[in-house]
Amino acid sequence: MSRRADSDETRATARPDREDGDRPDPPDPLGRGGRPDRDDRDSRDDRGWTAADADARPDQPGADAAAEPVRTEEAHITAARTGRALTTSALHAAATGADTFPAVLREALGRRGLSLERVSERLKARGITISQATLSSWQRGRSQPERARSLRAVDVLEEILDLPAGTLRSLLGPRRPRGRTTPPGAEGAALQILGEDSVVEKALGARFRHFNQETSSLMVHDIVRIGESGTMSGFSTTNVLRAGRAGADRALFVLSFDDEAAEPVDIRVTCGRLAEATYLKGLKSLVLEIHFGRKLAKLDTTVVSYAVEVSPSLTPATHYERWSRTNLHEYLQQVYFHPGALPVDCHRYVREKVGAPPRAQRRIPLGAAHDVHVLTSRCKPGVHGVAWEYGP
Predict the structure, then answer these.
(1) What pTM did the predictor assign?
(2) pLDDT in tens, 351-368
């Protein structure tokens, strides 16, 4: 299982060399559909748990198809000691991101089962040339139709996708500045580590674009507990955050699992207030939104702490990872093993990005409390993990 938190993510799985749902960064920042049409300038807008946050399954080859929308019935609220329950409408909004142009376009593409290539071909048959890259940029919210030809394409898209006339047009926001832009700092840094179409991006939808851009992590302490069966029983995280601008009052954390059987069964927030706890079963990911309880001044700090209990998975966990998009002043990983499931070997490692081969591997000893730990000062952006092996 793996976990992502804010700019950081952690992960524990049975296959440490497999990074689900991540691929090398594509050469085209607009997506896999190729370069945008030269004259379609509006297409040029830019685009944890470790044993606590997780990754998604790899996409199928040639996946120009629209991302499969998370079905509402597949999402459910986990048991959370928040003092109030989330409403069905709030859950639906978290699961589908309804009422935005990108979300409605993605949902319609998924419902019709049409790939971006097929849609581009159908538009071309009606005399409208819109590239797959442009369509990909529209459905991800990285750009929006604005020029006359693009708006005409939107009208035709409504027909192709069996949407009532004006459905997509009515959701378009105000005109954006011309010319190509780059992703915001937080989004761009996350993409450098996660790659395109990561489980974090899928779980957050439109919110990924502004993923915790108001804060950054200074110090993180992860504690993972492995039960007698060798599977993760729970984890806890303490995160010291600093505000990059005045007014920051919340942070998002995406915690993902590799094993479908492993799901969050209880969530406790000891520092901060839990405002959202949505488990997206189709993505095997838990989205937490934690409020600080006050608005921070610029460069002010706050502490967020939470713990999650996990249902037993089908296979033993063999590693735990956290990714970070920024430099951490200090990162402490601890893994506690049940006396009946002690590993025979443990080592630490670093990945440049999700899916990259591990490097800087080094053995670490098992402590008297049946634990291993790694303390890293001046922790650079990347993926930081601990792996272990069980005897025969």
Answers:
(1) 0.58
(2) 998 888 998 899 999 999
Residue-wise pLDDT for 98-145, tens only, equals 568 888 888 889 888 989 999 999 999 988 999 888 898 888 887 888
Q: At 147, which amino acid appears?
A: R
Could you tell me the two tokens for 135?
A: 């369509």
Run of H or E residues at 125: helix 116-125
Who wins on pLDDT, 296 or 355? Answer: 296
Structure tokens at 240: 């010291």
The conformational region for residue 166 under phi > 0 = left, psi -120 to 50 = alpha, else beta, is left
CA neighbor of 323 nearest in space, from 354, 356, 364: 354
Tell which residue, 299, 385, 302, 390, has the closest CA to residue 344: 390
Contact 273, 257 (CB under 8 A): no
Length of the chain: 392
Task: Say how far apart CA 100 and CA 170 lie, in whole Å.
Answer: 10
- The strand order across the sheet containing 75-77 reads 75-77, 273-280, 285-291, 250-256, 2-5, 8-11, 319-324, 382-389, 345-351, 359-363
Give CA torsion, residues 357, 362, 367, 370, to 10 deg.
20
The angle subtended at Cα 374 by Cα 368 and Cα 378, nearest 5°, is 150
Asked if residues 222 and 5 have their Cβ atoms less than 8 Å apart, the reply is no
As separate numbers, helices (DSSP H) first and strands (DSSP E) second, the chain gives 7, 16
287: closest CA among 90, 45, 111, 129?
Answer: 90
